[in-house]
Write a structure and sequence with these properties.
The chain is mostly helical. Helices cover 77% and strands 0% of the residues.
């Protein structure tokens, strides 16, 4: 019987890969499975309140104290771009496939485990990125636009009525936000795995390497046993 017949002489490499993949245990179920809420709505409420306060304080203080209108406009665009970037991440996580990252995790590629966690918690990640950060950036950018309108009106930089100026700036903010998210959605769907991988790699820079911690713990256990003996 040959190796390709699937009998007892099945390739040992395939068995080893299957065993490695089965050993990858990461918290959270598949994004198509059921998950526990774990008080997620309460966490969303607290996160939204804290992030909204931080963003509003930053935009209000910086734009009010900056005399240069170009710099104030750049800060406003920065707030809008944060919402677009997080919208891309949320859509990419919801549409990415877990399969390539399982293979990468078996080869101990950095960021693979974080990518699997993101995909297996896609509902919460998408809710945080699209609803929490995205909506906050939309609201804060509107408030920052109002501050910018008052600044322009006080300095008489533009010879337009305040009501007309308000309509133009608010419409521009809405147009830039919607256009950016529209472009970002098509990009996120077409490159979902890449977006998830780079996001996970960035997050892995702030997490402790499990392999190193495992080695250190085994070394410390061996040292303690040697001392006891």
């Amino acid at each position: 019987m040959s190796k390709d017949d699937g009998g007892p002489y099945k390739s040992s490499n395939a068995k080893e890969r299957a065993q490695k993949n089965s050993k990858i245990k990461i918290k959270g179920k598949n994004k198509n499975g059921k998950k526990r809420n774990n008080g997620w709505p309460v966490k969303v409420f607290i996160l939204t309140f804290v992030i909204a306060c931080a963003f509003s304080f930053f935009s209000e203080v910086t734009i009010r104290r900056i005399d240069d209108l170009i710099l104030a406009i750049l800060i406003l665009l920065f707030i809008v771009s944060i919402g677009v970037v997080f919208d891309i991440i949320g859509i990419a996580v919801a549409s990415a496939s877990e399969v390539p990252f399982v293979s990468m995790a078996s080869k101990k590629v950095r960021g693979a485990r974080e990518a699997i966690r993101l995909i297996r918690n896609a509902d919460q990640v998408s809710s945080f990125c699209n609803d929490v950060v995205g909506d906050i950036c939309g609201i804060v950018s509107g408030a920052a636009g109002s501050v910018l309108i008052m600044k322009i009106a006080w300095t008489n930089s533009v010879s337009l009525e305040e009501s007309l100026l308000s309509i133009i700036i608010s419409s521009l903010i809405a147009a830039v936000t919607v256009a950016g998210k529209a472009l970002g959605k098509s990009f996120a769907i077409a490159n979902s795995n890449k977006v998830v991988y780079y996001t996970a790699y960035f997050l892995s820079l702030f997490t402790r390497d499990e392999r190193l911690s495992g080695k250190r713990s085994s070394q410390s256990n061996a040292f303690m046993k040697a001392r006891e003996n």
